[in-house]
């Protein structure tokens, strides 16, 4: 081996040693740096892209930037909505509800009213129907009822004498009524003939009775009440059913609902009559549903009947704290139910009707008794006069109940 070759090998060994020392030094420095540098600085996360803002977030940002304009828009919407509701109510109140007429101007729509003829609420109802352009037939069971109807001196308000006790005479009267609907009529000579259309059968029985304890009600009183208020109503409805089905007439049942809903003591007869009529109309509605005939139950609350109100003022009876529902609302609701294609099955008319119906359905009897003040004034209902109980669906009994509530 020559000297040059030895020198070259020596230089290479020295270079490798120096390189190894440098590499070990850098590894040592790197290890020390790893001990002192935090982990979060060693791994830099990849920046995440934020999702686009939603519509709600954009709306919130816009509202936060334009608070004054937002308040103005909210105030405008609220006042506009209230104004629209008031306008709709006023327009509904001013809406003319009139029965249809023929080309010659004659009346064509027929309504039959069955119930308490002399009841102020019932008499106000059939008089209003006659004023609206209906031919109104009122079922009269006695000669006194027939005389009362004729005393109203209305051309298109006619009595229809039907005595359920005499089925042959009653059927004869129904046949005459059916023949009246089937034949053509002329308003005057050379006028275009027209037919009558049976549009509504209104049942308005007087379900109210004198308050009494169950143990003091005789079997004769039970029999009279059920015969006069339930069986007569069912028998009269059965007589008119063929004509109702043929002409697709609406059936309306009007009953006071406050006392039966609350199940008050000393009102067993009234609650029993109400329950019987409600069960009858419910079953009848299910049977007539296939015929396309609707049965509507009007649950009446406190209604202001002018004749009853005037009588109470003359007798010095204090007026209730809360204003009752005007009688016109009942008349408008009855008209709407008869002319509507799909009327509701249940109508709540009168102050307290819906509220007491809900209370009586959900609260236990003990809670209702506590609300009515049972134990403080147990004779509150006995203070009502019998003639007031028989007077109207807006009778004094309801006012006493509502004043206690």
Order of helices and strands: HHHHEHEHEHEHEHHEEHEHEHHHH
Global structural class: alpha/beta
Distance between the termini: 129 Å
What is the general shape?
elongated
Contiguous runs where pLDDT drops below 50 for at least 5 residues:
377-405
- Count the DSSP helices: 16
What would CATH call the class? Alpha Beta
Q: Find the CATH topology.
A: Rossmann fold
**Range of helix content:** 40-55%
The count of domains is 1
Q: Mean pLDDT, nearest integer?
A: 82
- Give the strand order of the largest sheet, numbering strands 1, 2, ... along the chain: 3-2-1-4-5-6-9
Keywords: Membrane, Transmembrane, Transmembrane helix
Pfam family, one: DUF1776
InterPro entries: DUF1776_fun, NAD(P)-bd_dom_sf
Protein name: DUF1776-domain-containing protein
Q: What is the topology?
A:
Elements: H1 3-36, H2 39-42, H3 55-65, H4 67-94, E1 109-115, H5 120-131, E2 135-140, H6 143-150, E3 157-161, H7 167-182, E4 197-204, H8 219-247, E5 250-256, H9 258-262, H10 268-288, E6 295-300, E7 303-304, H11 306-314, E8 325-326, H12 327-339, E9 346-349, H13 353-362, H14 365-371, H15 386-389, H16 396-404
Helix pairs in contact: 5-12, 8-10
Kindly describe this structure.
With 405 residues, this protein is α/β, with parallel strands linked by helices. The protein has one domain (109-404): 3-Layer(aba) Sandwich (Rossmann fold). Helix content is 54%, strand content 12%. It is built from 16 helices and nine strands. The protein has helices spanning 3-36, 39-42, 55-65, 67-94, 120-131, 143-150, 167-182, 219-247, 258-262, 268-288, 306-314, 327-339, 353-362, 365-371, 386-389, 396-404, and strands spanning 109-115, 135-140, 157-161, 197-204, 250-256, 295-300, 303-304, 325-326, 346-349. The strands form two sheets. The chain has a seven-stranded parallel sheet with strand order 3-2-1-4-5-6-9, sandwiched between helices. Strand 2 (135-140), helix 6 (143-150) and strand 3 (157-161) form a beta-alpha-beta unit. Helix 5 (120-131) packs across helix 12 and helix 8 (219-247) packs parallel to helix 10 (268-288). The chain starts with a helix and ends with a helix. Residues 377-405 have low confidence and may be disordered.
């Amino acid at each position: 081996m020559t000297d040059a070759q030895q020198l070259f090998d020596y230089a290479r060994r020295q270079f490798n040693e120096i390189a190894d020392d440098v590499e070990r030094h850098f590894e040592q420095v790197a290890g020390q740096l790893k001990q002192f540098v935090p982990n979060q600085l060693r791994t830099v996360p990849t920046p995440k892209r934020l999702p686009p803002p939603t519509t709600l977030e954009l709306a919130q940002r816009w509202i936060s930037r334009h608070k004054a304009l937002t308040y103005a828009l909210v105030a405008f919407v609220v006042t506009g909505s209230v104004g629209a509701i008031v306008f709709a109510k006023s327009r509904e109140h001013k809406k003319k509800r009139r029965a249809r007429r023929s080309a010659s101007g004659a009346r064509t729509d027929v309504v039959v009213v069955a119930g308490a003829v002399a009841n102020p609420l019932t008499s106000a109802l059939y008089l209003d129907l006659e004023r609206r352009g209906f031919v109104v037939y009122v079922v009269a069971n006695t000669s006194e009822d027939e005389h009362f109807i004729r005393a109203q001196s209305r051309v298109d308000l006619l009595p229809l004498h039907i005595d359920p006790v005499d089925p042959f005479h009653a059927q004869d009267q129904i046949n005459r009524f059916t023949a009246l609907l089937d034949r053509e009529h002329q308003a005057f000579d050379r006028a275009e003939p027209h037919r009558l259309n049976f549009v509504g059968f209104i049942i308005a029985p007087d379900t109210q009775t004198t308050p009494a304890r169950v143990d003091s009600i005789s079997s004769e009183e039970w029999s009279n009440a059920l015969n006069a208020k339930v069986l007569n109503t069912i028998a009269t409805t059965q007589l008119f059913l063929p004509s109702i089905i043929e002409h697709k007439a609406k059936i309306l049942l009007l009953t006071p609902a406050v006392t039966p809903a609350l199940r008050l003591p000393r009102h067993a007869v009234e609650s029993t009559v109400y329950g019987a009529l409600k069960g009858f109309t419910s079953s009848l509605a299910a049977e007539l549903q296939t015929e396309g005939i609707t049965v509507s139950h009007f649950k009446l609350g406190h209604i202001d009947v002018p004749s009853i109100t005037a009588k109470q003022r003359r007798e010095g009876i204090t007026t209730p704290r809360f204003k009752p529902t005007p009688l016109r609302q009942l008349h408008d609701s009855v008209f709407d139910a008869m002319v509507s294609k799909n009327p509701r099955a249940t109508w709540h008319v009168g102050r307290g009707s819906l509220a007491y119906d809900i209370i009586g359905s959900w609260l236990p009897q003990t809670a209702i008794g506590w609300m009515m003040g049972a134990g403080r004034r147990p004779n509150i209902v006995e203070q009502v006069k019998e003639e007031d109980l028989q007077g109207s669906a807006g009778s004094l009994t309801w006012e006493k109940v509502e004043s206690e509530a």
